[in-house]
Amino acid sequence: MAKAMTSPLLRQQHKHLSMLARTVFAQPLRQHIRPRSIPASRALHSTASLSLANASSTHPFSFLPANSLEPKATRTKGLTEIRGPYYAPVTNTYLDELLKDWGEYVDGVKFAGGAFSLMPEDRLRTLIDTAHKHGCYVSTGGFIERVLSASGGDKAVVSNFDVLEISSGFLSIPTDDWASLIEFTAAHGLKPKPEVGIQWGAGGDASIEELESAGTRDPKWLIDRAKTFLDAGAYMIMIESEGITENVKSWRTDVISAVTSAFPADKIMFEAADPEVFAYHIQNQGARANLFIDHSQAVQLACLRRGIWGTGSTFARVVTFEGTGEHFRKGGRAVHNEPSEKY
Fold first, then answer.
1. Which residues, at least 6 apart from 225, have a Cβ–Cβ distance to it below 8 Å?
2. In this structure, what are the phi and psi dihedrals at residue 122, rounded to the nearest 5 degrees?
3. DSSP per residue over 226-287, as a string?
4. Is the dihedral of CA 151, 156, 162, 167 positive or negative?
């Protein structure tokens, strides 16, 4: 009987203690987890502001410093192109959800291996519309190689999306004809993106032994043709990874260095569908390297570009500088005695 009488009293006392605990500790806890502005002294030592189209106002933990990237709408460096359906299906629902969460860091979707030609047309159109809805361009990948080999180069059967990737990894085509195809593509309002490399017979599923027996080209061949194609109207050059970082016993870092020395950063994109490869490019070219990766790696690359995460060799070592601004776009010369706001 006594136990029954005291139980409500004990429960009431416990309730009062719980309320007291919440009152005492809740306010200090909220003060600890509330996003706070970064003091100026800290901002001087980090790229604290985020220039991704006012994204800082919508991102959680935006009070933490992170590398800046150009806004997606005007971005010419730091482009990320992801592989669409090929090694794995990419459905419209998946692509839409992926780009809802990470579209800020994805600039283009590439349909690899001509896989899109096997899809129902209405489903293909839906995928393309979804990419466009999220501000991403759509690339045919290397399907033009199939079209050319089956048609003998007949202009009437050359079709397109937004970006037409043109490769000679499997085809032997004269450089002048290749340049003419680029001019033809550009004249139809598309963006020709030739794919060049040092490996003949390149393909993602080729073995090291097969590629070694096929032999490689001199890096100068790659650079000379890339310059010709840019003159012909190519908006960018895709650098094949086969023979350089893919399906090789040791990486040809000398080829990467030759390419990055020969061309502006906004005119080249490297295939880097392996975390170790795109980490290497970020380490050596910086956070604004243009890279082609698999759709499954979009988050990992975004974290690396923004400098918020990485491996032991990249964690807290990938940085950008807010003050570079426009003066490097004026012939590569710094503008002296001008206020930073002007940049």
1. 175, 178, 194, 196
2. -65, -35
3. HHHHHHTT-S-EEE--BTTTBS-SS--HHHHHHHHHHS-GGGEEEE--SHHHHHHHHHHH-T
4. positive
- From CA 250, how far away is CA 239, in angstroms rounded? 17
137-155 tens-digit pLDDT: 999 887 877 787 777 666 6
Residue 284 has which token pair? 């050596």
Residues 164, 72: Cα–Cα separation, whole Å: 21
> Which pLDDT band holds residue 52 (cuts at 50, 70, 90)?
very low
For residue 82, the cross-strand partners are: 109, 293
Helix 253-262 to helix 275-285 angle (10° resolution) is 40
Beta pairing partners, 167? 195
Burial-class residue 259 by CB neighbours within 10 Å (0-12, 13-18, 19+).
Answer: buried
Q: Residue 234 CB: number of other CB atoms within 10 A? A: 26
In a 10 Å sphere around its CB, with 0-12 CB exposed, 13-18 middle and 19+ buried, how is residue 291 labelled?
Answer: buried
**How far apart (Å, rounded) are the C-alpha atoms in residues 153 and 156?**
9
Q: What is the three-class DSSP state of 307?
A: coil
Q: Quick one: how far is CA 154 from the chain centroid?
A: 33
pLDDT digits (tens, 9 = 90+) for 101-151: 999 999 999 998 888 999 999 999 999 999 999 999 999 887 877 787 777
| CA 15 centroid distance within chain | 54
Cβ neighbours, 10 Å, residue 327: 17
Question: Is the alpha carbon torsion for 187, 188, 189, 194 positive or negative?
Answer: negative
Looking at the whole model, is its pTM more than 0.85? Answer: no
Tokens 């283009």 sit on residue: 108
Cβ burial 121-134 (10 Å sphere, 16+ → b, else e): eeebebbbebbeeb
Tell me the C-alpha distance between 25 and 148, whole Å: 71
Ramachandran assignment for 243, one of left (phi > 0), alpha (psi -120 to 50 degrees), beta (any other): left
